[in-house]
């Protein structure tokens, strides 16, 4: 049975049995219409995504139409194993079914805002059964007026500030829960699993990043006034990225939070006002959530979704917007003045934490930024890129995006060097 047919014949009836429609389906419910439309791959490749339009007739109520998004594992067993989709669906199911409800209940006692407001509604999620039966069913946000941005690589200031304020709210909830309900929070965090991409070894990871970072290091080395001892240090540092990533992802209290983990443009949807300005944002794709420095999210966003011009002109302001959101929301959660939380969560501590972790964003940008730039111009065949060993994937990746991508990744490297972040 193909996945579209399975959605109609099996998954939608299971959702009904699960009781995902605010108790409206306690009586007999009939599926009057169920239309399934596959989503184009675009820049999402970890899952197969389908949009469904379901008209339900309830026994004791009037019919109602529901728009949902269903995520299923890739059908090819090789790709599922390569992407470690069992871990991805385990994590996403855990966050939607346990962590977000826990956060929502935690906030109800203390504040007026809802953490659910920055995520789509989850109707149903299941994992850890058979690998090809994992499923996540979310509300389709398009009928609510949300859409992905038309900007396919870099975002403008308005989109960035909106996203960072919402991220600050999410991170503030982590801090609040750690302070007031740490046991329940950490019980769920401890269940997160780490994706083992391509079943890779430490040697595979070292080779991958050694190749992807080299184009930036060599371009940087050709710049005027570049000390060659710095270049050698960079090459040495990026030759052991498996160790570096472990260091970057090791929790260091008190700033560690539940990170989105893939905080990028393609995992956000925006709603716009009548003037076309973004006024609300929602995050999705929670498959690689991590318990780590907040700057894992911040560095990835800064280097993958901001142009060098935007970072140069506005990064300090944007960082302050994020930090202000953190401390204001945390103070509201804790029920105390803002001044009471700034000692442990000062701007200076976050800035130092960013310098300590900013290289994380560079490492991922060294491969994904050229990939995104190439895909924005001409759709890249994923089956051709993501096949073989990590070394072979890196070899294909360094050919993507051409000289323009090399320059942009090198500019990120220069920014890290100037910040003293390497």
TrEMBL record:
CHK kinase-like domain: from which residue to which, for each copy? 136-332
Q: Which SMART domains match?
A: CHK (SM00587)
The record, for SUPFAM superfamilies, names: Protein kinase-like (PK-like)
Q: Which InterPro entries match?
A: CHK_kinase-like, EcKL, Kinase-like_dom_sf
Q: Sorted alphabetically, which PANTHER family does this protein's record hold?
A: PROTEIN KINASE-LIKE DOMAIN-CONTAINING
Q: What's the protein called, per UniProt?
A: CHK kinase-like domain-containing protein
Species source reads Periplaneta americana (American cockroach)
Upper classification of the source organism reads: Eukaryota, Metazoa, Ecdysozoa, Arthropoda, Hexapoda
